[in-house]
Amino acid sequence: MTLEPASFEWSPERLHSINYLGRNLDYSIEAIRFVHEMVLKSGSVNTTSVGEKLRVFAVESFGDDAKGVLESWNIVRSEDVGVIVEGLVSEGLLVAEDDDSLDDFQDQFDLDSLFQNTA
Fold first, then answer.
1. How many CB atoms lie within 10 A of CB 22?
2. What does residue 92 show for φ and ψ, rounded to 5 degrees?
């Protein structure tokens, strides 16, 4: 799976989409915005690199508290990122390739493996 940011500006419609996802997914609005901003900052993301990009963006954003913040948002494994990404794609906030699937995020990483060598 390779994700590209949709052409983007913070419009009322985009904010509505983020809020909609926050109400309908088991993740906070902050978590959804964080994953969205990670992809925007990265330019594109594929499922083999998403874990490392998530870790780096979290550390840049939250320093030593990065893992704890992600855990507090219930982002603890690659499947969590996949659910958020799928929602962002469905709302037109990210663009996926035609053959991309939520299954692409299956068993890619968990937070313990991502942060094991960064203590």
1. 17
2. 80, 15
Q: Does the pLDDT at position 5 exceed 60? A: no
Average pLDDT over residues 35-51: 84
Dihedral of CA atoms 68, 105, 54, 62 in degrees, nearest 10, equals: -20
CB 14 within 8 A of CB 93: yes
**Beta strands in 36-111, from DSSP E residues, in sequence order:** 45-46, 94-96
Residue-wise pLDDT tens digits, 6-29: 555 556 676 667 777 777 777 888
- With 0-12 / 13-18 / 19 or more C-beta atoms within 10 angstroms meaning exposed / middle / buried, residue 110 is middle
